[in-house]
From TrEMBL:
Keyword Transferase found: yes
Record-annotated Histidine kinase/HSP90-like ATPase domain positions: 166-252
Stored Gene3D superfamilies: Histidine kinase-like ATPase, C-terminal domain (3.30.565.10)
Protein name per its UniProtKB record: Histidine kinase
Transmembrane segments: 6-29
PANTHER family in the cross-refs: NITRATE/NITRITE SENSOR PROTEIN NARX-RELATED
Length: 253
């Protein structure tokens, strides 16, 4: 084999190796691209599935809320009216005491139904955050059990769209905890800006609690609050002591 044949063989082999290398790179790029597309598709599917589950859950909660308010609430009110018309004077003392205790239970039942119907009303994920917050305060006032106020500073910046529903759920969780545990009659909500961050402060005049003891065995409501704050990288502070009410502060950017 002469020199020219050797050169041709070497060049041919080099060309083959180069083509093989280019082909391998092309396959790798296509594989990565397809893998990324599949991952994006899977992520989109999971997000869509999650949205569907949330929509179904919201519809169920809305239906239950409506049933509680329209049907059970009305029945409870009628029972309470009938109990109030009973004259306990001619009855034996024991019977009168039982009737009075039943009246107290009915008042409590009516109160709980009102609270549940408020906490389960339907949400629109596309609704502006402040509008949802104002509606929540309005619903709370309609129960007649609380005096709730909302103050919004001019410099308050609403949470970004991807955080809006999560922040609102945190506000709703605080309100639900206030309703269930605080025995409060007033709730003050303040939205303002501090150190380039948006701040939500929720303060009640309830019985308060020992935060040191609560941290060792937190309720599901407090656990939900901390988990949601961690998910959106928000600050969460709970200040309370027995007999002095509770203040919850949520801070986000």
């Amino acid at each position: 084999m002469n020199n020219s044949d050797q050169i041709i063989s070497i060049l041919s082999f080099a060309l083959f190796v180069m083509l093989l290398f280019i082909f391998s790179i092309s396959l790798a790029v296509r594989y990565r691209k397809r893998k990324k597309e599949n991952e994006l598709l899977q992520t989109s599917y999971l997000l869509e599935l999650q949205n569907v589950h949330l929509e179904i859950k919201e519809e169920i909660l809305h239906h239950v809320s409506r049933e509680l308010h329209d049907n059970l609430g009305q029945i409870a009110s009628l029972i309470k009216i009938n109990l109030n018309t009973i004259n306990t004077e001619p009855l034996p003392p024991e019977t009168g005491e039982k009737i009075e205790e039943t009246r107290k239970l009915m008042r409590r039942l009516t109160r709980d139904i009102k609270i549940l119907s408020v906490g389960m009303h339907k949400l629109n994920p596309d609704q502006p955050f402040l509008e949802m917050a104002r509606n929540e305060i309005s619903q709370l006032n309609k129960t007649g059990l609380f005096t709730a106020t909302l103050r919004v500073a001019n410099d308050f910046a609403e949470p970004q769209q991807e955080k809006s529903l999560m922040v609102f759920r945190m506000v709703q969780e605080v309100i639900n905890n206030t309703i269930k545990h605080s025995q409060a009659t007033e709730l003050k909500a303040s939205f303002f800006c501090k150190d380039d961050a948006s701040v939500i402060e929720l303060q009640d005049n309830g019985i308060g609690f020992d935060t040191g003891k609560a941290s060792s065995g937190e309720s599901s409501g407090l656990v939900n609050l901390r988990n949601r704050a961690r998910l959106i990288n928000a600050g969460l502070k709970i200040a309370s002591k027995p007999g002095a009410g509770t203040t919850v502060t949520i801070q986000f950017t």
